[in-house]
Amino acid sequence: MVKAKVRHLPVKIKDRPEFNLAYWEIDSGNEGPCLLVTAALHGNEVQGSEVIRRFCPIAEKEIVKGKMVLVPFANPLAVWNRRPHIVSTLAEPKGRMVERVIGEKKMVVPDRRDNLNCTWPGNPEGNESEQMSYILFNGLVQQATHNIDLHCWNKFWATSALPIKTEESLEFAKAGAYPFVIPSAPLPKDFQGPYTLTGWFNSHGRVAFAVEFSGQYILFEKEINIGVRSLVNCSKYLKMFKGDLQGLDETLVVKDDSTKVFKVTAPIEGLFIETDLKIRDFVKQGTLLGYLFSDKNLETIEIKAPADGYLYSYGSHRALCDVDLAGMHPYSDKGDTLAIIKS
Amino acid sequence: MVEAKVKYINFKTKTLPEYKMPYWDIDSGKEGPCFLVTAAIHGNEVQGSEAIRRFCPIAEKSLLKGRIVLVPFVNPLALWNRRPHIVSTLGEPFGVYAGKLEKDNLNRAWPGDPDGNESDQVAYIFFNDFFKKIAPTHYVDLHCYNRFIAACSIAEKGNPKSIEFAKQSTFPIFRLFTFGSLLNTEDVPEELKKRERFSLMQWVSKNGGAAFAVEFSGQYTLIEKEVERGVRMLSNSAKYIGVFEGQLEGMDELVIHKEEENVEMVAVRVPHQGLFIENGLSIGDYVKKGDVLGHLFNDATLKTIPIEAPISGYLYYYGSARRRCDVDLASMHPFVDKDGNIATIIREKPSSEQEEAEQREGKNNG
Question: What ipTM was estimated for this complex?
Answer without folding.
Answer: 0.94
